Amino acid sequence: MKKSLLVKLLLILAIVGVSLYVSFFDSRFKFSLGLDLAGGSRLVFEADTSRVDLSIKDKALESLRTVIEKRVNLFGVSESNVYSSNFENKDRIIVELPGITDPKEATLLIGKTAQLVFAIPNSESEATASSEIVGLIPTNLTGADLKSAETIFDQNTGKPAVAIEFNDEGSKKFETITGENIGKPLAILLDNEIVSSPLVNEKITGGKAQISGQFTLEEAEKLETQLNAGALPVPVLLVEEKTVGASLGVDSINKSLKAGIIGLIMISIFMILIYGRYGIVSVISLLIFAIITIAIYKIIPITLTLPGIAGFLLTVGMAVDSNILIFERLKEEIKLKSLETAMEVSFGKAWDSIRDANIATLVAAFILANPLDWGFLHISGPVRGFAITLALGIGISLFTGIVVSRSLLRLFIRNDK
User: Which residues, 6+ apart, have CB-to-CB distance to 190 below 8 Å?
Assistant: First the structure.
């Protein structure tokens, strides 16, 4: 056996061994299931862009999506999916929360504007800790000047509070404002409501302050999340809320698994009946394809949706395409050449067709995934899931169809000599 063939076979065995371990034996790696399989909630927010200049509308919507995505992640929802959409000239942000069946708390957190403003009283009035804003003058110090926020406990009262730290520019503004308003209250407004109105005793340097109010620990932590994520650049309104039961997801998984097993069996029978022992090689390659694919899905991890599973099942059938092209070419070449020479020529001549067919499919997958977020293409989480699993399947099938099958055929031919 040539050294190069031995190295390839050992490499294939190593990859299969690691993939088997990850796929079936290592509990640290698990499937990440999407909303339609794990159950959860789907929220649709409509953005009010009526006051946004058209020249910066796209930038504002992208900023809105980023802030909402950050809030969802800070809220602790794993494998969430946040994307923008345009429906009947209405700009929308769609949020998918797998595993969340009671989305009310998440909805309040996501949709809160969280516009933080510091305000001082004019000379004829004072700020109070009520929800009414009377005689306050907003300063140029806002949530945009924040560096971080953290939930703490007030040393004097023992009640939850939020410690905030400003960036360099915000620290200078804060120092100036406190220096000019010694002896006066400095109102802290969140979404036009006064949450705290501490008295300024001296000029504060260092850019650190504390928001104290009648907070519960949960309320303080929510405020921390909102401030760390940033304010929404445009107001949003919840227009649709949908909850998917986990039982529907389990049923979908079972049916998809059954369909996949039936498909694998039918393809294996077809290949063995048509191509004999060469078909057995393609079946082995197909099994290796399935094992490696499952491992990669768990390692990345890929969020599996029902369309994503459909993409995987499609690539199962496509995985044997390269073998069919090679074996059909082998039938012709073996009439004129020895088996070993015919096999090498068949792989070489079939490669052009295999390459072109897979490139065409990868281009289609790229368009469906729309990674560049082109506005003229529809953006959908499930469609992107289908495209990603399809593209991964194409890449893995090229490895198993060309490298694995070729190495196994070379091994069988040498053993026949």
Answer: 114, 115, 116, 223, 226
**328-345 CB burial, b ≥16 within 10 A, e <16:** ebbeebeeeeeeeebbbb
- Respond yes or no on whether the N-terminal peptide bond of residue 301 is cis (omega within 30° of 0): yes
CATH number of domain containing 373: 1.20.1640.10
CA 386 to chain centroid, in Å, comes to: 13
Domain count, the chain: 3
Domain hosting 212: range is 116-216
Helix H segments across 370-404? Answer: 381-398
pTM above 0.85, yes or no: no
**Does 134 lie in the same domain as 187?**
yes
Q: Is residue 96 part of a domain?
A: yes
| Residue 416 burial (CB count, 10 A) | 9
Q: How confident is the prediction along the chain (417 residues), in pLDDT tens digits per residue?
A: 577 888 889 999 999 999 999 998 888 888 877 777 777 888 899 988 887 778 778 888 888 888 888 778 766 665 678 888 877 788 889 888 887 777 776 777 677 666 778 888 876 544 444 434 557 888 888 877 888 888 999 888 888 988 989 889 989 999 999 998 888 888 888 777 777 787 888 888 888 888 877 788 888 887 787 777 676 777 888 888 888 776 666 777 788 778 888 888 888 999 999 998 889 998 999 999 989 999 999 998 887 888 888 888 888 878 788 889 888 998 888 888 888 888 888 888 888 888 898 899 999 999 888 877 676 676 666 777 788 888 999 999 989 988 898 888 888 876 655
> Which residues contact residue 159 at a Cβ distance below 8 angstroms, ignoring those fewer than 6 apart?
153, 212, 214, 215
379 located within any domain: yes
What's the CATH number where 106 sits? Answer: 3.30.70.3400
Residues 397 and 250 in one domain: yes
